[in-house]
Amino acid sequence: MKPGTKLKSAACDTEVMVIRCGDGSIECGGAAMGEAKPEAVGTPSADFAAGTLMGKRYVDAAGTFELLCVKPGKGSLSVDGVALQVKDAKPLPASD
Amino acid sequence: MNIALFLEMAADAAPDRIALVCDGTRWTYADLLAGARGAAALIRQSGVAHVALLDESSEAAVMALFGAALAGVPYVPLNYRLADADLGALLARISPALIVGDGARVRRLCPDATNVIVSRADFVAQAQALTGDAPVDADAGDDVAIQLFTSGTTAAPKAAILRHANLVSYILGTVEFAAAPEEDAALVSVPPYHIAGIAALLSSIYAMRRILMLPAFAPDAWLNLAAGERASNAFVVPTMLARIIEAMGQMVAKGASQPDLSALRAIAYGGGKMPTELIHEALDLFPTTGFTNAYGLTETSSTVALLGPDEHRAAHGSDDPVVRARLGSVGRPLPTVEIEIRDEDGRVLPPGVPGEIYVRGEQVSGEYRERSALDADGWFPTRDAGYIDADGYLFLSGRADDVIVRGGENISPGEIEDVVMTHPAVAEAAAVAIPSHEWGEAVGLIVVPRAGHSAPDEDELKQMVRARLRSSRVPERVLFADALPYNEMGKLLRREIKTLFAR
């Protein structure tokens, strides 16, 4: 896995761009994401069904992983079973 | 990641929302994406090494920017105000290129048969007619997205390159996707070949803030567009702001009705030194508008430090000289950027001590076609001089190359100019290095007298500098002029001032 990779959910419509990453399995809806969309898309597991939002960045607590949601879906994101959080960015005034 | 993803995301989220208004025509995000994809197909067919624009801003600039990104070819917007010889030299450096815009001028200056030359109207028509291009896929972002020739105020233009990863990092670090309400609109009047013009397109599209494009700046046209389309945001260079305020003053004097700028929530400015008096005037004139001063360079993918709206109001309303002085600063670094001040030997300097500004961050390319200017730790020496105060505010004092070295002593032109500008009869002042037999270099001062005042006395100006600074700062020669030479972005052309002293 490397930055710039586009990953697709096996459990919903979610697609993400990898901004940064380390070792670990990136999942959506509780299932590993892949570069190819599986033919049969499942449903998110109950623990990972909070949904993803277009344009939000998702990070792990250590800041090793950062994913940009480019297509939203019903599943939520995790790495090795640990849920990712929306990155809180202090809003900046428009400068250009 | 590829910057074209930003347009794709906006078109996915709201395909029918208006993305761009230019010359009365409205383009949706879906229109622009289709145009960018068609442009990419055209660029691929052409087999060129660069995609250039020699034209004012229009929808073609957006399609060329994102089309080039999708095709993996660097986009090179060119300064159409350049003299023929200078433009010809740049054209030779980018051939073979697909060049959109003034074809007759290109053929005259660069008769290279490998170039593909297309007018604005034909380019847009072909981009709309061609279909194709799958969605943006995996892309590490290492390719060159944009090549911009620097303005070359001190030397021949350098070809600065910005990679997709630099620009993506800047946008993700500063803009929240789709954060703009649908009624928001950003008035873009900077030319397409300036980094601020490119950053404005990327930021506005990612924020999903409708772009109001003003192809050629004129104060009345700016005011009419701002009022007619209810602009919520605008970016201006200081000279534009001065001319807008002047035009509004003339309307008042004539008893003409004022344009309705009640929607204008935010004005950002940058690209040159803002006169303190002008920003105070603007803050009074637009009491409910938030002002943001943005400092950045081409090589840093635009903004690296900013002074925000609250800081402007606090400084404007303060009696504390330290707080008030911040209106002359460019604010603090972005959270994603590091800034240091270093001396000539590369040692980091403490707060308050002037030196050269160094910048580091993912958005900082610091790279030219010929070489990278980054040091081993990724720091970019900007060649801008300045200092950071105790609270972390960055103050600029000109280009490092403009420093006057008198008998081994470094003198910043800004410190002399600031003193002279306090004289009531001085409208503008610039200090430059002039050759000195005794000192190597000495201070030359050029002064524009204020309208309605007679020229200030030369000895009085010298005495002011001696009293407020020290004797080494006292100008050796003083010239008076009707105006100072600026380029179209409001950058003072010190090189030209030096030639006035050589006469």
UniProtKB/TrEMBL annotation, chain A:
Protein name, UniProt field: Uncharacterized protein
Protein's organism: Sphingobium xenophagum
From TrEMBL, chain B:
Keyword rRNA-binding: no
Molecular function terms from GO: ligase activity
SUPFAM superfamilies: Acetyl-CoA synthetase-like (SSF56801)
Top-rank taxon: Bacteria
Signal peptide (residue range): none
Protein name: Acyl-CoA synthetase (AMP-forming)/AMP-acid ligase II
Domain AMP-binding enzyme C-terminal, first and last residues per copy: 415-491
UniProt-listed InterPro entries: AMP-bd_C, AMP-bd_C_sf, AMP-dep_synth/lig_dom, ANL_N_sf
Segments forming domain AMP-dependent synthetase/ligase: 8-368
Keyword field: Ligase
UniProt similarity note: Belongs to the ATP-dependent AMP-binding enzyme family.
